[in-house]
Amino acid sequence: MRVAVLGANGQLGQDVVAAYVAAGDEVFALTHQDVMVESLDSVTQALQRVHPDVVVNTAAFHNVERCETEPDPAFAVNALGARNAARASAALEAKLVQISTDYVFDGAKGAPYVEEDLPRPLNVYANTKLSGEYFVRGANPRHFVMRVSAIYGLHPCRAKGGLNFVETMLKLARERDRLRVVNDEFVSPTSTVDAARQVVTLSRTDEYGLYHATAEGGCSWYEFAQTIFELSGTRVVLEPALPGEFSTKVTRPKYSVLENRALQRKSLNLFSHWKDGLKAYLAAREQANTVSRIG
């Protein structure tokens, strides 16, 4: 199978490329230097050159605070970029996997969201991603819209200064004796390796539609940090932050845990509990550090 990955040098994109390569597919890793998703002509020309069977769009403007102050480029990438990927892939009769986000919900439900729940985005980033979903669903019938949550991986996240939440917590624990983390925001922490495996598996089917694709279970950011320190053997005093202790410029959902109901119904769900994904990540991280020290 011929696969084109947009945003191939991103945190998730790199693991998607690796997962398809491991599956024996012919992969075309397209970065911003190869294609500008904001331009339909650019996307069309890039995809026509490789004529893929599957297109995976991981390209995104996902610095949530910058989206608030720069809504036009955020919409151009997250919404129009998704529309362009959908139109260009449809013209080639290719399947499209579009990566979306748990942030399309407002958190008021207080229980895991399923695909049938009505989105109510609270910020610019979430609105642009939801717009992208609708563009995809309207432009390419061979689509898989996959909502992920709180992803982290071994590859740098450029929008967050090269760090993900796990690496941020471990870095802060090396620098400080005591940490405070919010305990009133709940997510489904998901390894990019696991998300990438799900992309590959789903794209090999004709079960088109909207999917929640996250690790099983959910936790607060405080609980996530607590588990990171426990599993990594890190010694630090960790305390739950008080509600509203940390000021924020962007309104975020307090609860955005997702349930993979559609994947489960179709016996396609590959995800295990979020703690299992974290264990595997920490083991891979340690192995990578060992190899780096030896080299």
Strand order of the largest sheet: 2-1-3-4-5-10
- Percentage of residues in DSSP E strands: 15-25%
**Overall mean confidence score, pLDDT:** 93
The CATH superfamily title of the domain at 2-154 and 189-218 and 252-274: NAD(P)-binding Rossmann-like Domain
Global Rg: 19 Å
Defining key terms:
two-stranded parallel sheet, alpha/beta, 12 strands, 10 helices, Rossmann fold, 295 residues, 43% helix
What do you see in this structure?
The structure is a single chain. By secondary structure, the protein is of the alpha/beta class. The chain has a domain at 2-154 and 189-218 and 252-274: NAD(P)-binding Rossmann-like Domain (Rossmann fold, 3-Layer(aba) Sandwich), CATH 3.40.50. It is built from ten helices and twelve strands. Strands 2-1-3-4-5-10 form a six-stranded parallel sheet, sandwiched between helices. A two-stranded parallel ribbon has the order 6-9. The protein has a two-stranded parallel ribbon with strand order 7-12. The radius of gyration is 19 Å and the shape is globular. The model has no long low-confidence stretch (mean pLDDT 93).
Brief overview:
The chain has a domain at 2-154 and 189-218 and 252-274: NAD(P)-binding Rossmann-like Domain (Rossmann fold). 43% of the residues lie in helices and 17% in strands.
